[in-house]
Amino acid sequence: MKINWEEAINQIFEDRLTCPRCTTNYESLVVGYSRRSTLNRFAPRHRDCPRGDECEARKLITLCESCATEERLPGKEADADQMLETYMLDCRRDLEDALDYIADLWRDDFELETEHLEQGLQDVAPEIFKDETIWRERLETEYLRYHQEFRERTRRIPHPGWRSEYVEELRALGYSTLLGE
């Protein structure tokens, strides 16, 4: 079963929660993290992962209480508002990871010559940089959807200073962002 992320997020925005395993609607779902690849199909934010079902990255999983018990997913119950916040925070974590990678971590993937140590990823590996930029823009667009939904619900954005810190760090590296100036 492949989860339609757009449908899943729109249901959260409508305060309708559907368990991706049993497809039943609930007032709340169990939210937890897992690295088990057998749970990948229940991780809406994991869509389009290049590693697919073999991925063992830590993923946010949402299931009803019964399905969570059957799948041995540890977590806590969350209603639509709590899930919206959880998704936003998970998206932020992914954005921070993407920022860390283009800032410095990419160097671990290459054996750089001394003359290339001061260069950026865009100079050393333009194709990888392009892929990372596309990934980051996708995450930023997702984050903006959550941000907009919080505003429409007249709810306070969790940790509102995060966005400006992210933008400042990215701008300091010389990169653009969809999240602001």
Structure description:
This protein has 6 helices and 5 strands. Strand 1 and strand 2 (25-26) form a beta hairpin. The protein is mainly alpha-helical. The chain is 45% helix and 10% strand. Helix 3 (80-103) packs antiparallel against helix 5 (126-152) and helix 3 (80-103) runs parallel beside helix 6.
Characterize this entry briefly.
With 181 residues, the protein is mainly alpha-helical. It is built from 6 helices and 5 strands; from the N terminus they run αββββαβαααα.
Keywords:
181 residues, mainly alpha, 3-stranded antiparallel beta sheet, two-stranded antiparallel ribbon, 5 strands, 10% strand, globular
Secondary structure elements and their pairing?
Layout: H1 5-13, E1 17-18, E2 25-26, E3 29-34, E4 59-63, H2 65-70, E5 76-78, H3 80-103, H4 121-124, H5 126-152, H6 161-172
Antiparallel strand pairs: 1-2, 3-4, 3-5
Helix pairs in contact: 3-5, 3-6
